[in-house]
Amino acid sequence: MISEEEIRSIANLAYLKINDNEIEQLRSDFSSILEYMDKLNEIDTSKISGTSNLSKTENVDREDISKRFDKDLLIGSMPKQKNGYLEVKKVLYND
Q1: Which of 7, 30, 41, 49 is most exposed by smallest CB count within 10 Å?
Q2: Percent of the chain at pLDDT above 70?
């Protein structure tokens, strides 16, 4: 079974805050997933040839056309501005 330290490490890497009550459930869930993956690893796939993407999707390219906007009008429509720039929430963490 996956350890409590591994669960906490995964949560830290994913920037998730988990409490002590959730640890056992997460340990059980992760262990079940890993056991299933072990079962899949037991399947003999040596006689199965590789396949490529079977869907018939294709990239649709378009010309990149720039558009001019009135900077003051655009910034003025945003909820928070500071010194002529947009003010947004912090998205990078140093934890």
Answers
A1: 49
A2: 98
Task: Name the one residue in this structure whose structure tokens are 């040596």.
Answer: 46
Q: What is the DSSP letter of 15?
A: T
Per-domain residue ranges for the chain? 4-41
Contact 2, 34 (CB under 8 A): yes
Residue ranges of E strands in the chain: 81-82, 85-86
The span from the CA of 89 to the CA of 79, in Å, is 12
Look up residue 19 and give its amino acid: N
What is the per-residue pLDDT across 26-60, written as a single tens digit (0 to 9) for each?
A: 999 999 999 999 999 999 988 888 877 777 778 88
End-to-end CA distance of the chain: 28
Per the DSSP assignment, residues forming a β-bridge with 82 are 85
